[in-house]
Design a protein that fits this description.
SH3 type barrels, four-stranded antiparallel β-sheet
């Protein structure tokens, strides 16, 4: 055999080896892709079955959470408060509210007053209504003043009285 015949065969063998090395990862990737698609199709066809064993009921409130105020036992020395919905004006400090008008008895109606909140909105208030962040309650509306009584901590056992005065035009 001559040298001229061996070299092309060796080159052909090297080329086939390189192609085989390059083709193996590509073919395994294709096979893995097909296998993943088959598993995904099998999962989509199977119905989902929920197993509730060892899981909490999502429609029940966990114990100790979300007790209503009337269900909660007051602590020692604490006064049980009646359950009520907070009013809009209970989100403001009393010093941020401005008394702008007083309306006296009008045909069987109780006296009323008008206050302006920090946002500039006007609100009608009446005796007995709650106002301010410290659960203040309007006790009296008289000529130029609104008297508010706020409870204090149980240790002091006194009430605090705050008076809102009507501002005159020349006052700011």
């Amino acid at each position: 055999m001559s040298n001229s015949y061996i070299y092309p065969v060796q080159n052909l063998f090297k080329t086939l080896t390189c192609l085989t090395i390059l083709f193996i990862p590509w073919s395994t990737a294709i096979a893995a892709n097909k296998k993943a698609e088959a598993q995904k199709a099998a999962k989509e066809d199977a119905p989902y079955i929920y197993n509730a064993e060892g899981k909490r009921n999502p429609f029940q409130v966990p114990k100790g959470i979300g007790l209503r105020p009337e269900e909660r036992v007051p602590k020692k020395g604490e006064i049980a408060k009646p359950v009520r919905i907070r009013e809009y004006l209970e989100q403001f400090q009393l010093d941020s509210l401005k008394l702008v008008a007083i309306l006296f008895h009008i045909e069987g109606q109780q006296a009323a007053a008008m206050v302006r909140d920090p946002e500039g909105k006007g609100h009608m208030i009446h005796v007995g209504q709650y106002i301010g962040v410290n659960e203040g309650r309007i006790s009296d509306i008289s000529d130029g003043t609104v008297t508010i009584v706020e409870p204090t901590p149980a240790l002091i056992k006194k009430e605090r009285t705050i008076t809102l005065r009507l501002h005159k035009k020349d006052e700011k």
